[in-house]
Specification:
It comes from Elaeis guineensis var. tenera. The protein contains five helices and 15 strands. It is of the alpha+beta class. The chain is globular, with a radius of gyration of 18 Å.
Length: about 230
């Protein structure tokens, strides 16, 4: 017996999800220095890898993964058990299972997201400077089904306002000042600030503050693969 229309609609997002394939992210270090790449999501999944100049790390991420990110760490030192610290982007160990500490340039993504009737099986991607900036980044799709390329390659550290300057990067104002104006707590209607405009002017496609969705979120069909390049 064929399923009823209501049951088909009810399970349609689930079917889209199960038919989707894991996404691959090729993470490439083109910086003249070593970085320690990392990825993590809110489900305590993640990992990390030392990348010398020219090296690539391929990350496979399960379909349906939401609220995940990839970033570069700098100035790291780890012991034989993979425990240690980094100057920027630190998560406390080589293989991260939680987000890193600011400042860190972020490649953020949510895979195979569904909200019928508005969208089904879409990936959402962005570069975010909400946690500051440590390494220039290019985040692009590599599948024929989608053509997206987000960049933040300006000299943010060199032009960083003195009050945001920290060792190895340009920090975000929420971390520095810890006020609602800059941190935009849930339910607030915060506006752009002098600091967010600084980041936006240098990297127009990147998130400059938490409510910067309109100009900073991009989509691809679910099942797209991606490439994240440090110092493109």
């Amino acid at each position: 017996m064929a399923p009823s229309t209501s049951l088909t609609l009810l399970f349609f997002p689930f079917l889209l999800l199960t038919l989707s394939h894991a996404a691959t992210f090729d993470v490439v270090n083109q910086c003249s220095y070593t970085v320690w790449a990392a990825w993590a999501d809110l489900g305590n999944n993640g990992g990390g890898q030392q990348l010398n100049q020219g090296q690539t790390w391929t990350v496979t991420v399960n379909p349906g993964t939401a609220a995940a990110r990839i970033w570069a760490r700098t100035g790291c030192s780890f012991d034989a058990n993979g425990n240690g610290h980094c100057q920027t982007g630190d998560c406390g160990k080589l293989a991260c299972t939680s987000y890193g500490s600011p400042p860190n340039t972020l490649a953020e993504f949510a895979l195979n997201q569904n909200a019928p009737p508005y969208y089904t099986n879409l990936d959402f991607i962005d570069i975010s400077l909400v946690q500051g900036f440590n390494v220039p980044m290019d985040f692009r799709s590599t599948s024929a089904s989608c053509s997206q390329d987000i960049q933040c390659t300006a000299d943010v550290v060199g032009q960083c306002p003195s009050e945001l300057k920290v060792s190895g990067g340009c920090d975000d104002p929420c971390t520095i000042f810890k006020t609602a104006q800059y941190c935009c707590p849930n339910g607030s209607s915060c506006e752009p600030t002098t600091y967010s405009k600084f980041f936006k002017n240098l990297c127009p496609k990147a998130y400059s503050y938490p409510k910067d969705d309109a100009t900073s979120t991009f989509t691809c069909p679910g099942g797209t693969n991606y490439k994240v390049t440090f110092c493109p």
